Fold this protein.
Amino acid sequence: MASRRALKKKITYIAGELFMASLIEGVDRETVINAVHNVLALLPRISHTEPGNVKGFYKKLKEDLEKEVTVVADEVAKTAKA
């Protein structure tokens, strides 16, 4: 398992990259900014791991992160098709 510090840095990096996607012409900025906000909301969750269910906790965290990244990827894909 990676350290919490490394995981927080990785999530912060992903949020920065998602924010850069909001600068693409034609992307719905509101949707992207909401996704970035939701990704940054994952950071405090890392510090409060559920005792007894650590594996499930990080699995849920990963699913939430992937869901928000998918939202932005879909938004950028719509712009590329147009």
In short: The CA atoms of residues 60 and 66 lie 10 Å apart.
